Amino acid sequence: MQERKLCFNDILLVPRYSTLDSRTIPSISTCLGILRLETPIISAPMDSITGRYMLVVMDKLGGLGILSRHINLPDDKELELQVEEIRSARNQGATNIGCAIGIKGDVGEKAKTLLDAGCVAICIDVAHGDHKKVYEAIEVLSGLKGSQSFVIVAGNVCTREAVQRFADSGVDAIKVGIGPGAACTTRIVTGFGYPQLSAIQEAHEVIANGKYENISIIADGGLRTSGDMVKAIWGGADACMLGYMLAGTNATPRLEGKKVYRGMSSRAASGRTDIAPEGVEISMGDKGETEEVVTEYIQGVRSGLAMCGAKNIQQLRDRANYVVVSPLSMQETLPKSHG
Known about the structure:
alpha/beta; TIM Barrel; 8-stranded parallel beta barrel; 12 helices; 17% strand; globular
């Protein structure tokens, strides 16, 4: 019988005895390769989430913003706009800045231009990362490391085998998640995917064998609450990539004058009619100040560590245990509405 695979709502972490004086004590600092983050939060490279303003806010809060690709623009216009946004963010004081690129065109020249503009993390951002052309792009980026100091992020994948191949290829951080995103319909359209918590756990098991100690796991998709973030980090994620949890906040770009949240494989984002869309667009109301929302998530993650007496992320993994719960547990978990 096949082992059951888990998503975030399938489990609860079990509280442990604690000697911490305050929920503010735990450190949630982490690393992506050579890049140290005080906050394990990365804004997703989506055109409805990360633009120049989000880069500044994420850096200020100790996380990382990864600038979206402008996939509807010609390569030269896309690169010109990315450079403009990176420079604008740096002029406003941001130092930890990431940028997404695709696998078409001259990957090396694109990356050089972005790095020269001040980018410190290059993210190869495709829907199905376990692909020959992605590994070729990683090889090109790895060749730049002799003259440039930066982090290579790549994805997305969801299997042990793909994580192994990524680790062997020379990446610094692996984005894990196929189909769990709030605006993603890949599982519905193609029938392919993997429950997100198990995907994170199994990716971590590959990396944690000692050979790949400097490679990081990024949980990308399926996160709806700070509690999900705690579970993802406990399962082995070094950082959580947020899209939906940031959507509608003030630092997200307006698209055609509106606040929306849309998958990058949606028809609206990609503009492609030759393939089935694997994402949707969701209208978003005003969700408040990004800085306040993210600060609340940070506080929630720290509180999660404190629930098992953990002073840092590694202690969370060492100390916390979990139980598999029934589908009715969500009914028990959610607060009751008034009236």
